[in-house]
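Minutes, project check-in

Agenda point 3 was the complex the collaborators sent over. CS summarized: three entities, 1085 residues total, and the question is how they sit relative to each other. Sequences were read into the notes so everyone works from the same version.
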Amino acid sequence: MSMNTQGRPTGAGTAASAGAFASTSGSSLLPNEPLLFEIGDTEHSGVDLPDVTFDESRLGDFARKTPLNLAGLTEPETLRHYVRLSRLNFSIDSGMYPLGSCTMKHNPRLNEKMARLPGFADIHPLQPVSTVQGALELMNELAYWLMTLTNTAAVALSPKAGAHGELCGMMAIRAAQKARGQGHRGVVLVPESAHGTNPATAAFLGYTVRSIGARDDGTVDVEAVKSALGPDVAAIMLTNPNTCGLFEPQVIEIAEAVHEAGAFFYCDGANFNAIMGVVRPGDLGIDAMHINLHKTFSTPHGGGGPGAGPVVLSAALAPFAPVPFVRKSGDGLELVEHAEGEALGRITAFNGQMGMYVRALTYMLSHGGDGLAQAAKDAVLNANYVKARLEKVFSAPFGGQPCLHEALFDDSFLDGTGISTLDFAKALIDEGFHPMTMYFPLVVHGAMLIEPTESEPKQTLDHFCEVMLELAADARAGNQQRFTSAPLKAPRRRLDETRAARAPRLKWEPPVDLPQAAE
Amino acid sequence: MRYLPHSNAERAEMLAVIGTPSEDALFNAVPRRAFKTAPLKLPAHSPEFTVEARMVELAQKNRAAGDGPFFLGAGAYRHHVPASVDHLIQRSEWLTAYTPYQPEVSQGTLQMLFEFQTQVAHLFGMEVANASMYDGSTATAEAVLMAKRLTKRNRIVLSSGLHPHYRDVVRTYVGDTDDLVIVPHSLAGTMPLTIDEHTAAIVVQTPDFYGSLRNIEEYADIAHDAGALLIVVVTEVVSLGLIEAPGPLGADIVVAEGQSIGNSLNFGGPYVGLMATRKEFVRQMPGRLCGETVDSDGNRGFVLTLSTREQHIRREKATSNICTNSGLCALAFTIHMSLLGEAGLVKLARLNHARALALASALESIPGVELLNKTFFNEMTIRLPVAAAPVVDTLARKNILAGVPVSRLEPDDPTVHDLIVLAATELTTDAHIAALVQGLKEVLG
Amino acid sequence: MTTKFTKDHEYIRLDGSAGTVGITSYAQEQLGDIVFVELPMVGKKVKKGDEVAVVESVKAASEIYAPVSGTVTSVNEALTEDPGLVNQDPTGMGWMFTIDLDTPAELDGLLDDAAYAAHTA
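CS then shared the predicted structure for the full assembly.
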């Protein structure tokens, strides 16, 4: 069997007593909030709507018979329920997320204000284009910024998330290979350190994934790339800066070899925050790169989405961008909605993530080109500062050189303590921080990947480093309990994920002994 | 720069600790010819008020739906979103929270997702729903792929009346082969379908793109008789307040666009895809799933679960490459749906249908205009005596947004060049309808 | 009955030309709590090294490869209800499937007790 032992250990830790912050306290500051379906019912409602009668409906035989069983609440109850629930969440507005690869930077409020202008929020995607020229102009301007920052020939704006952008970029590559008569090329090269979406995307499109190893210094083995290239390789998918937080120093050489071998270079742009304004991926030879607007360009994470993943494209791939896209037409702008020539068909209905474009462009205009470059430099400064302060105690496997925007440590500093990376991270919660990215990238044992971003002030970084050093010292001094029983101060202790997976309960079920009618 | 906390003195202090002369020196691994020391050709940073002025300028070049008569639907609907919804989703702890991978500090998001999954399952009459997808069209494509995996068959039949954009997305995802059977559009309702032992699934939308209600039970029988699955698509979820749920009628997978609840038109995105299926199929369902469990103190809590389907675990064997759900849009949906409750959703649906009846009756009074639907919920199709797109453009110049000319989505089909799809919602007033009728009469002369 | 092992931590307990396959105690310990086992269809023909089953823990999914070529003759339905059996009793109640060998000579390539113990030392 294949043994994926790099995954996180499971189990609910040790159940030491919770102490002062007993999670059953249920105060308004740290509530135990029931489910909507336990407090609402089918009669209550928080909207006032008139009752209407109609003599004859046009519903045919299709009127609803099955009860909806949807719980409702009045307005004050709704506010209270969702405000109380919100208090159970950590957020970037309340504290630092040192999450490698996620770029948890500040979400500016001007973005939110602009996104809500009726001229952006209240326009329908299929209105006559003469009535939405401002929207098309905005898309065009965003495209200009993205292409200028990357020095590329075109950009596909429509992907709804980074992974969707990967799909789009790889589809464009597949189409381009076919157009060249090279559609038989069935292999995609992916480094071991890649994010899971990369091989998933390649496999989704029917490619066989061939893994490329890393060198001892954490960078991709260039010789291995060169020997893996051949007439069956359609593309390489590389992350640069890579998932270990390092710039691939031989990326131009790799790009040249890839092109020589008749393949394309897909770049995972998740780490673009490290280089925006100072390095243009187009200058490195990439053919396609998705950009996560919710990482690099400050659109909010919203508890898991929505994102946006526009893909910048080289001249070779530009003809294969999907519809729709914006184009100049006479005095104005038009929306090309039907595939012409080799353009890919749609990858989504309508026009893409306009709400996120507004936010991202607002951010770009606020920062300006100079601000974006400074942000990248500060992001890199912050990661190196954290690394410098921690690396005497924490083990940085690729520590001999500066990192870029994220610092990578392995768990060898925990050897002999009986404490895992997971335990360590949970203890960080009790100190007021969200855990760092754990167990990723897979190439390092018990990885801890720390990305402060440029938004963190020096005081916060200092506090973070002090906490990390104190935790490390305590771990090495043998205080296992503190780590294996953590977190103690969060709204919940460690949760039983095994139970959740073995006997999945994926929706509320009415309690069996109560009459159903009440719900 | 207002988003960057460091002063130059602090930068210098930090560089000293690192032991590097400058920020630029930290980029030494970058080949020199690729490292830009001069700024790129982009504007410099700006104060808020300058940025605001530019964005307002762009926004004002757009005719907002609320600025006059508005009848567009075709998969995105203008409904009233209660003020509480937008207020709540802007709370820091909702807006700026990360994906709930650390459940102990994400119970707000996780409990909300559990509520969302329950609402969606109940709405559709299905056993299990996921924590949302990007939108209805990609959810449809993912459902098709899921059906292929489950049945180990390759043929997909897209019934007529499936939103053309959704059809095109499915095409892009599965490829344009003989195994993708696209039934040409027809306004006659159910068409005879050739389904056999190679068919993985039939995909049917109801209400369909033209607004007509489809007989789901009939499609379910046809599909199941051949051992295929039935995928039902809903682009207007408010309809489920009045129309029978797809689950009890035999749907195996239900996908929908949830935008109508809690989310503005936003020129097409961000929206929120909904997906639900039978319990036995849950391991093949893509997207995030939230499950109930307990913590080590025995308190009920929620976690993301069945993650081994997902990309970060299975990598190339994942059910999909999806990483995000539609988080904040799902929250908006959940809050709006909580405010509506069953009583409110039913009233809202009735009100929508009533407005649609008023619109239908008004349209039928115009000489030359033919209403094509026998059945509808809040959307309908009319045939004009002339090409529809120029009429819609002319009316737009008079500030009337009269609906979507079908030729916009099907430019190569001459049989639809004279059709307009129109929607009415609770926001459609008698004055809007009167203005539309007046406008049409003038244009059609 | 002899039991043989693969380098990938599958075992096959032999009874004539039939064998019972599962994963070893070492494997279940490494994987952590098992939450789901995806078993092959009865009657499936496999070649040595083919992916024949998948074992899922909360955070990882691991493929099980056929230790020998043959036909799957039965699967352990009990694992559907209680995947934890693989953790509790991997070589007994946690068995996964039985197989009829069609090339017994393949067994020579597998590890015996001592060799497997050395492999996992």
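Noted in discussion: Chain B has two domains: 69-81+342-444, 83-336.
Follow-up: revisit at the next meeting once the mutant set is ready.
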